[in-house]
Inverse folding.
C-alpha cells in the first residue's frame, strides 16, 4: 500500500530508534501488527532488547546535555519544522492510524491534526516559559524563580490514540528542553515507527544529535524498565487504571514524577430544559465515535425523567442509521474494535447488564463476519442500567451507552460523580442556573466539564486530564508545560552586607 511505503513501513521493521536512525536490531523477538479491519497481518516489528534499551538511555542522557543548552525559541523552531513534516504526511499518517487502529479515516486525519496543532502551540510556548520576580524583604536583594528541564521524559502511550497523545507530551517536553523516550502501544507499533521516521527527517536536516526523540518497542516488560529507571525523572503514562497504578507505585518508590491519564467513565446529564436534538447528536458522537474506545467516550447518560423516553427513541433512530464497516470507506461512521479480546469484553459486559436486570434497548451484537469481513465489528449498544451496578462503575472500552433517569439536579450530580473515575463530563441545558451549578464546586468532579458540548473531542489549548482514578495528570495546553520542568527559586544579593531573612541576627567575629 502506498501510504505504508511513504511512511517508511516495511515488511519487518526495527522497533528501536535514537532519533535519526533505527538501531540494527539483533533481536529475535518480534511483534506482529494486525489491522482490525480484517485481522490480517500488516508487518512485523522487532522488540527492544535490554542491551538496546541501555544504549537508548545512554544516548538520550548525552543528547540532553546539548539539547538543554539550545535556546528555547530555537528548540521551538525544530518543533515548528516537525509540524510542517506532519502537514506534508497528514493523509498518509491518518490512513495508517485508521488501518492499524481501526478508527474511521476522518478521525485518523483528526488525530494527526491534533499533532500539528500541538506543534503550533509548542512553538509559541517556547517563548513563554515564564518565571516570576518577587520582592525581597532584604535590601538590595533580587528574588525570582525560573524553570529548568527535567532530563529524560518517558512516554508510554495507548493504542486508541497511537500518535496524538505522544505529541501532546513530546512537543511540549521538547521545547522545555527535555529529551524523550517513547514506548508506543504494542497493538499499534507501526504508527510509532511512522512518526519516528517523520521526525528523523527534521533531525537530519538540522544536524541534531542522536538521542533527542527516541523510540523503544515492546510489551509491559519494556514499560517496567522505564518506570523503574532512576535515569528517567518523569514518566507520562496513558492506559488502564490497573496499568497506571503499577506505574505510579513503581515511580513513586524511587521518588520520580508521573503524569497519569487513565480510565474514564464519562457521563452526560440531559436536563428537561435541554436542546434535545443538539444533545442527541453530541451523545451519539461521544458514545460511538472510535467505536467507544476513547478515554473521553460517553459511557453514562443521566436523563431527566420527563425527557427519558423521547431521548431514548431519538438515540435509537440515530443508531439505526449509523454505518458500520471498513473505516477507510468514506461513508463509514463506526469501524471495528481493536481486537477479539475487546469484542469478548463487550459481550461479557452486556451479559452482566442483563443479569443485573438491565434492558438492552438497541444493538450490542457481534456483526456476522459474512456481512463485513473477518474484522472485529460490533453494533453499538444502548442499555438501561443503575449507576451503582459494578459493571457501570467499571469502564468497558466498547460502545455501550448506559441510560439512567433522574428527577432533580442534586440527584443527577450525585449520580454523575458517583464513580471512581473523573475525566470528562457534560451537561445539556439551556437553564443558566443549572449550567453554573454543574460547573461550580458542588458540580462535576471531573478534570473536564462542558455545557452543551459532549464529553469527547477536547481541544489542545486546554489542559487535558482528570481526577480520582483517572490519575490527576495534565497534558497538552494551558500551563501543562510546567509538569515537564523543575522550578528553581533564586536570590541575588547585590549589596555589600549580608542581612538575613526574618530579621535574624547571627553575628560571627
Amino acid at each position: 500500500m502506498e501510504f505504508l511505503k511513504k511512511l517508511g513501513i516495511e515488511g519487518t521493521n526495527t522497533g528501536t530508534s535514537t532519533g535519526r536512525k533505527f538501531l540494527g536490531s539483533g533481536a529475535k523477538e518480534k511483534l506482529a501488527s494486525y489491522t482490525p479491519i480484517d485481522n490480517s497481518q500488516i508487518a512485523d516489528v522487532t522488540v527492544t532488547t535490554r542491551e538496546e534499551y541501555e544504549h537508548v538511555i545512554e544516548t538520550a542522557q548525552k543528547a540532553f546535555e546539548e539539547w538543554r543548552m539550545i535556546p528555547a525559541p530555537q528548540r521551538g523552531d525544530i518543533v515548528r519544522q516537525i509540524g510542517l513534516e506532519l502537514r506534508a504526511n497528514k493523509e498518509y499518517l491518518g490512513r495508517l492510524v485508521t488501518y492499524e487502529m481501526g478508527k474511521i479515516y476522518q478521525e485518523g486525519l483528526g488525530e494527526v491534526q491534533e499533532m500539528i496543532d500541538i506543534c503550533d502551540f509548542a512553538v509559541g510556548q517556547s517563548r513563554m516559559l515564564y518565571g516570576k520576580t518577587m520582592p525581597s524583604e532584604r535590601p538590595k536583594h533580587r528574588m525570582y524563580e525560573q524553570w529548568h528541564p527535567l532530563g529524560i521524559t518517558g512516554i508510554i502511550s495507548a493504542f486508541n490514540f497511537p500518535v496524538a497523545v505522544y505529541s501532546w507530551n513530546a512537543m511540549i517536553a521538547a521545547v522545555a528542553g527535555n529529551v524523550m523516550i517513547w514506548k508506543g502501544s504494542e497493538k499499534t507499533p507501526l504508527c510509532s515507527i511512522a512518526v519516528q521516521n517523520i521526525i528523523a527527517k527534521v533531525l537530519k536536516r538540522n544536524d541534531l544529535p542522536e538521542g533527542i526523540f527516541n523510540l523503544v518497542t515492546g510489551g509491559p516488560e519494556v514499560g517496567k524498565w522505564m518506570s523503574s529507571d532512576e535515569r528517567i525523572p518523569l514518566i507520562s503514562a496513558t492506559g488502564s487504571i490497573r496499568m497506571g497504578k503499577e506505574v505510579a507505585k513503581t515511580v513513586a518508590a524511587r521518588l520520580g514524577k508521573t503524569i497519569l491519564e487513565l480510565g474514564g467513565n464519562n457521563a452526560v446529564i440531559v436536563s428537561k430544559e435541554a436542546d434535545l436534538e443538539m444533545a442527541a447528536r453530541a451523545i451519539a458522537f461521544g458514545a460511538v465515535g472510535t467505536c467507544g474506545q476513547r478515554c473521553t467516550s460517553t459511557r453514562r447518560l443521566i436523563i431527566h425523567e420527563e425527557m427519558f423516553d423521547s431521548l431514548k427513541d431519538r438515540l435509537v433512530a440515530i443508531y439505526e442509521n449509523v454505518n458500520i464497516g471498513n473505516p477507510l470507506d468514506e461513508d463509514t461512521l463506526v469501524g471495528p474494535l481493536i481486537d477479539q479480546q475487546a469484542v469478548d469484553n463487550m459481550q461479557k459486559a452486556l451479559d452482566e447488564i442483563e443479569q443485573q436486570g438491565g434492558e438492552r434497548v438497541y444493538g450490542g451484537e457481534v456483526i456476522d463476519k459474512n456481512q463485513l469481513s473477518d474484522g472485529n465489528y460490533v453494533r453499538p449498544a444502548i442499555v438501561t442500567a443503575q449507576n451503582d451496578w459494578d459493571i457501570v462503575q467499571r469502564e468497558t472500552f466498547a460502545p455501550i451507552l448506559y441510560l439512567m433517569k433522574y428527577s432533580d439536579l442534586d440527584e443527577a450530580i450525585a449520580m454523575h460523580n458517583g464513580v471512581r473515575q473523573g475525566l470528562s463530563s457534560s451537561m445539556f441545558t439551556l437553564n443558566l442556573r443549572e449550567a453554573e451549578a454543574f460547573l461550580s464546586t458542588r458540580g462535576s468532579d471531573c478534570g473536564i466539564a462542558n455545557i452543551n458540548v459532549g464529553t469527547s473531542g477536547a481541544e489542545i489549548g486546554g489542559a487535558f486530564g482528570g481526577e480520582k482514578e483517572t490519575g490527576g495528570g495534565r497534558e497538552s495546553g494551558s500551563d501543562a508545560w510546567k509538569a515537564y520542568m523543575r522550578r528553581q527559586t533564586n536570590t541575588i544579593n547585590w549589596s555589600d552586607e549580608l542581612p538575613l531573612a526574618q530579621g535574624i541576627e547571627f553575628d560571627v567575629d
User: Anything to note?
Assistant: The radius of gyration is 25 Å. The domain at 267-463 is CATH 3.40.309.10 (Aldehyde Dehydrogenase; Chain A, domain 2). The first helix runs from residue 2 to 6.
